[in-house]
Each structure stands twice: as structure tokens, then as C-alpha cells.
Amino acid sequence: MFLPPERSSIDFLIIISTIQKFRLVKGIWLEFAQLAESRKRSSSIVTHDSQTLLVVGGKNERDVDLKTVEMVTLGKSVPGPEMPMARSWGCFVRINSTTSMLLGKG
After folding, report:
1. Who is most buried in 2, 27, 59, 82, counting CB within 10 A?
2. d(Cα 32, Cα 47) in Å, to the nearest integer?
3. Domain segments of the chain: what residues?
4. Other CB atoms closer than 10 Å to residue 70's CB: what's the count?
């Protein structure tokens, strides 16, 4: 359930749109970074050190599945390792500090 900022206890929230990421800071939405590649239906996790958002897969503007990964840190996005196969509509889950799983149909 989404609560308006004045009623929410959230201090930090990242919203991923097709090309931008925003965070909610003290009731104000601020742009966090631009994605290098426009994507929708991607999955993401925050790394164990809480410093990087990994955005994986998704679909581009032509609705083609992506196998690219972006590593987003404060204010910038850089390419990560490419996945072996394209994937969208998945669920990316961090298990512990060294293991994550990307689940869902390819």
C-alpha cells in the first residue's frame, strides 16, 4: 500500500521507471540517477553493502527482452556483466551477501 509522504514512515525508497530512478527523502521525490538503457519489466536488488542497485533484464522500447545488467550508484549507472540469456518479468532476490537468485520465466 502506498502512503502519501506526510503519512508514510519511509525515509528512503527507490522507484524505477523506464529511464529514471527516484528516491523519497523527507517527503520529497528526488531524481537518483538515469538508466543507461531504457527498460521496463526489469528486476532489481540492493547489494549487501546498500551502496548499489543492480537492475537486470527487462524489455526495451521495442518490447525485446534484455540480458543486460546496470549497476546504479548515487547519481550514475554503469554497465554490469551481461546475463547468459535475456529475461523480463522476473524476480531478483538477495539470499545473503554473496548469493542472489533471478527467478521467473525467461
Report:
1. 59
2. 16
3. 5-103
4. 24
Distance CA 32, CA 75 (A): 6
**Does residue 7 sit in helix, strand or coil?**
helix
* 83 to 2, 40, 47: CA distances (angstroms): 32, 17, 17
Segment 69-99, tens digit of pLDDT? 999 887 788 898 999 999 988 888 888 888 8
3-state secondary structure of 106: coil
Is 21 within 8 Å of 29 (Cβ atoms)? no
Q: What is the spatial distance between Cα 10 and Cα 4, in angstroms, rounded to a whole number?
A: 10
Contact present, 68 and 79 (Cβ < 8 Å): yes
pLDDT in tens, 24-82: 777 777 776 778 888 888 888 888 777 888 889 999 889 999 999 999 887 788 898 99
